[in-house]
């Protein structure tokens, strides 16, 4: 029995179709009129299901638009689910062309029944954690919690580590924060200079610097495990360079490697990367803004590395400007020392 493989989703779906067809044939027959009536009924119920599923999304979109100023939610939702929109439109169109009613009394019963089932699912989901949310928590507890706050003993903390670095290297960081780069396609290069635009000498670019002082801690049975942050110089034309502590989110890089080997990790072959990234960013941002040990010390930077025009160095400059509008004066004050 241990060698018997479980059915995949496609096989289960096909069996469900055959089951439904057999029930229909056994109860209704196969006359042309019956088939036509079935097609209209199925199209109507497909529309029902989409209306029921879409009502929750509509409520969330409306809330985000009025309370959070998110006016692009509908566009993002359409791009992600355009096939569903087409099926919904086709179903409604077919019912109308068949001169049948769109809504019947059965819609209310189906709607109430779906809410009951959804409530039960919600109770179960309270005990579940999404993939991206779990990775964000692990990233914080397994890495950032060791690198950002002071342990009151051996490690002085990220901010003091930056100040010691500034003193030793005779430089000045415009903002003392760790910039965590979150790429759209999850790819994280060994060196962030890979995101430079070598054919555009007019644009700012990144250069790797000497890393910050390493941190050694005994963790999970590993003695003197080494943790270290990276420093980069943002080189600008006709302006002093900017120094930043920046690195990619390693859990997302690990996921990128996993997804590149789908034959080995078949359970994750259909994972929604955009959803994972969104959950990861949302949870990590929540942790960093509510935890007093890290508040104001880390910054999540979403970078669309699939855009050929996007330049990470410029993205970092723009974020620095948002955090510290007077960053140019801070940098020049160091040059005058």
Automatic annotation (TrEMBL):
UniProt name for this protein: STING ligand-binding domain-containing protein
Cellular component terms (Gene Ontology): autophagosome; endoplasmic reticulum membrane
GO biological process, one term: innate immune response
Gene3D superfamilies: Stimulator of interferon genes protein
UniProt domain STING ligand-binding: residue ranges: 131-322
Pfam families named in the record: STING_LBD (PF15009)
GO molecular function, one term: cyclic-di-GMP binding
Natural source organism: Diatraea saccharalis (sugarcane borer)
Keyword Membrane in annotation: yes
Membrane-spanning intervals of the chain: 12-30, 85-117
Recorded superkingdom: Eukaryota
InterPro entries, per database record: STING (IPR029158), STING_C_sf (IPR038623), STING_LBD (IPR055432)
Alphabetical keyword list: Membrane, Transmembrane, Transmembrane helix
């Amino acid at each position: 029995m241990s060698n018997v493989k479980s059915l995949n989703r496609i096989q289960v779906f096909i069996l469900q179709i055959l089951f439904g067809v057999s029930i229909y044939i056994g109860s209704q027959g196969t006359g042309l009129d019956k088939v036509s009536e079935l097609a209209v009924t199925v199209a109507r119920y497909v529309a029902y299901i989409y209306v029921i599923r879409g009502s929750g999304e509509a409520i969330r979109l409306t809330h985000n638009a009025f309370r959070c100023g998110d006016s692009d939610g509908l566009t993002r939702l359409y791009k992600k689910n355009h096939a569903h929109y087409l099926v919904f439109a086709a179903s409604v169109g077919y019912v109308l062309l068949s001169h049948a009613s769109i809504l019947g009394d059965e819609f209310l019963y189906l709607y109430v029944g779906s809410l009951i089932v959804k409530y039960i699912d919600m109770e179960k989901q309270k005990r579940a954690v999404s993939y991206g949310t779990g990775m964000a928590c692990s990233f914080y507890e397994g890495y950032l919690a060791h690198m950002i706050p002071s342990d009151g003993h051996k490690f002085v903390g990220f901010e003091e580590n930056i100040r010691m670095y500034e003193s030793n290297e005779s430089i000045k960081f415009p903002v003392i924060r760790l910039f965590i780069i979150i790429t759209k396609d999850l790819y994280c290069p060994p060196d962030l200079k890979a995101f430079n635009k070598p054919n555009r000498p007019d644009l700012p670019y990144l250069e790797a610097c000497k890393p910050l002082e390493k941190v050694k801690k005994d963790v999970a049975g590993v003695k003197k495990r080494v943790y270290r942050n990276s420093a980069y110089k943002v080189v600008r034309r006709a302006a002093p360079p900017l120094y930043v502590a920046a690195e990619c989110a390693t859990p997302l890089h690990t996921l990128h490697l996993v997804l590149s080997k789908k034959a080995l990790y078949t359970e994750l072959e259909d994972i929604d990367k955009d959803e994972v990234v969104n959950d990861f960013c949302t949870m990590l941002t929540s942790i960093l803004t509510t935890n007093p040990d890290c508040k104001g010390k880390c910054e999540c930077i979403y970078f669309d590395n699939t855009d050929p025009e996007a330049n990470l160095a410029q993205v970092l400059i723009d974020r620095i400007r948002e955090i510290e509008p007077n960053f140019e004066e801070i940098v020049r004050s160091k040059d005058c020392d």
